[in-house]
């Protein structure tokens, strides 16, 4: 595929636009965007409905500059209808709602499975929607982590998300091993922010026989690095390790092929790129090669029992096959509703088409960042500069770019928020900006750059 810069240049040339930094070009890129209609599927916050905005600096009636889909996706307009329907059903028939359409409560989670299977590249029986992400990580690790004195380590990335880090720590302790001996956090080379695939593979080749499980995030929340899941999975399995991926930042962001990559298990939350609302219901993948395994210590509940005889209540477990057998409790209908609404949106396109737009949108953001704020840029307009922690190679990232500034991050963040930018800062020193292929456009990116420029100028002038 042509690079983002080449495409942007071509679009500009075709429209006789000579200034690649002009707002006119952003508008033209929006007009050419074949997925632009998807923005209408979401409630897009306005400046006037955001907290902390300074209305002397922005037009309160314009759209906010929402760049935070990496943290919380916007609300699909379809959610309310799904929830209202269920509230009405509950009001009208109470307990009978368990087996009445639409979305019979006893089975409602299963209605979201096909859509998510598609998003993660799973086959039938490999995906289940349940619980929260960290809970699912625990459930999977209890089932798949069987340390022995020779092979007891869990390999993860240094600076893993705290929840993953703590979950791994607690699983090691639960099995009677020491965190100091059994938890290996792989560090990037000194002076680098991202791990190289070759270094992960080399480490596995050297130490793989002592590693019981590899548990990385597919897309690193802090740096925005997309790992080469196929290669890492392949090498880890060659060494006899179980491989699990945390796909919190990958699902709905980049195309995934979990079945084909032969991943053992994976878990993800749904409130980031699949817009399911804060704390929304999470998902898990278990490869079909494990569909009938019974040799684990998984945690059970009545929902692990096959549906056909689940309500015989004879306390003789007949375990559901595949991922469904990892369920414990009955599913929360109100959390399934947002999943149905966002899957309706994803159905209108493909992950491949979304990825194509995403590469262009993030490439455009990168181009403008480098032009105005690059450390070595001849066209830099501010004294302060900005470095990217995220890999430059588009194949090694999703939509998010992680920015590091030469001036105080807290102050930059504060100034951005005043100008109606929704983004987040992550300690110690990064601001994450995610133009999301579902609802962001090129104009948003251009307006973000203008807001950043104004923010940095104000900071330099000591206001
Ligand atoms: C967002 C995120 C989480 C959040 O976990 P919850 O259980 O949903 O609170 C965990 N791990 C990673 C890598 C994340 O990005």
Helical fraction equals 25-40%
Q: What general form does the structure show?
A: globular
Reading side by side through the largest sheet, how are the strands ordered?
A: 2-8-7-6-5-3-4
Structural class: alpha/beta
- Beta-strand portion reads 5-15%
The major sheet is characterized as:
7 strands, mixed
Report the total helices.
Answer: 13
SSE pattern: HHEHHEHEHHEHEHEEEHHEEHEEEH
Rg measurement, Å: 23 Å
Cofactors and ligands: pyridoxal-5'-phosphate
Modified residues (N6-(pyridoxal phosphate)lysine): 272
Family: Belongs to the kynureninase family.
Catalytic activity: L-kynurenine + H2O = anthranilate + L-alanine + H(+); 3-hydroxy-L-kynurenine + H2O = 3-hydroxyanthranilate + L-alanine + H(+)
Protein name: Kynureninase
Helix-strand blueprint:
Layout: H1 4-14, H2 23-32, E1 65-66, H3 79-93, H4 113-120, E2 127-129, H5 133-144, E3 153-157, H6 162-174, H7 179-182, E4 183-186, H8 197-207, E5 211-217, H9 229-238, E6 242-246, E7 265-268, E8 283-286, H10 333-346, H11 351-373, E9 386-388, E10 401-405, H12 409-418, E11 421-422, E12 424-426, E13 430-433, H13 442-460
Parallel strand pairs: 1-11, 3-4, 3-5, 5-6, 6-7
Antiparallel strand pairs: 2-8, 7-8, 9-10, 10-13, 12-13
Helix pairs in contact: 1-11, 2-13, 3-10, 5-6, 8-9, 11-13, 12-13
């Amino acid at each position: 595929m042509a690079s983002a810069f080449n495409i942007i240049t071509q679009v500009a040339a075709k429209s006789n636009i000579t200034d690649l930094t002009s707002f006119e070009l952003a508008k033209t890129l929006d007009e050419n965007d074949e997925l632009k209609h998807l923005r209408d599927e979401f409630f897009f916050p306005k400046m006037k409905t955001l907290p902390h905005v300074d209305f002397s600096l922005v037009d309160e009636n314009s759209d906010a500059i929402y760049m935070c889909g990496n943290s919380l996706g916007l609300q699909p307009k379809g959610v309310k209808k799904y929830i209202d329907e269920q509230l009405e059903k509950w009001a009208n028939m109470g307990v009978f709602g368990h087996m009445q359409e639409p979305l019979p409560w006893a089975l409602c989670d299963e209605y979201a499975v096909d859509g998510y299977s598609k998003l993660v590249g799973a086959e039938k029986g490999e995906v289940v929607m349940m619980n929260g992400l960290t809970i699912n990580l625990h459930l999977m690790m209890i089932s798949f982590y069987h340390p022995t004195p020779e092979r007891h380590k869990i390999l993860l990335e240094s600076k893993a998300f705290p929840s993953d880090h703590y979950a791994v720590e607690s699983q090691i302790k639960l099995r009677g091993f020491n965190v100091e001996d059994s938890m290996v956090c792989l560090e990037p080379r000194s002076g680098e922010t991202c791990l190289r695939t070759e270094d992960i593979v080399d480490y596995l080749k050297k130490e793989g026989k002592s590693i019981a499980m590899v548990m990385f995030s597919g897309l690193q929340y802090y740096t925005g690095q997309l790992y080469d899941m196929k290669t890492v999975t392949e090498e880890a399995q060659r060494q006899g390790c179980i491989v699990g991926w945390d796909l919190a930042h990958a699902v709905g962001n980049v195309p995934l092929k979990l079945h084909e990559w032969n991943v053992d298990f994976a878990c993800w939350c749904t409130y980031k790129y699949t817009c399911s609302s804060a704390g929304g219901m999470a998902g898990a993948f278990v490869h079909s090669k494990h569909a009938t395994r019974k040799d684990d210590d998984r945690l059970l509940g009545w929902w692990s029992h096959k549906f056909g005889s689940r309500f015989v209540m004879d306390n003789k477990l007949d375990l559901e096959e595949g991922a469904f057998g990892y369920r414990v409790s009955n599913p929360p209908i109100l959390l399934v509703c947002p999943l149905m609404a966002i899957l309706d949106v994803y159905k209108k396109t493909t992950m491949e088409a979304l990825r194509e737009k995403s590469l262009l949108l993030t490439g455009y953001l990168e181009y403008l960042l480098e032009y105005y704020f690059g450390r070595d840029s001849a066209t830099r307009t501010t004294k302060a500069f900005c470095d990217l922690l995220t890999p430059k190679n588009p194949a090694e990232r999703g939509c998010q770019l992680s920015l590091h500034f030469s001036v105080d991050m807290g102050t930059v963040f504060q100034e951005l928020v005043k100008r109606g930018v929704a983004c987040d800062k992550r300690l110690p020193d990064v601001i994450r900006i995610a133009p999301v292929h579902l609802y962001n456009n090129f104009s948003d990116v251009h307006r973000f750059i203008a807001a950043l420029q104004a923010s940095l100028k104000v900071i330099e002038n000591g206001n």
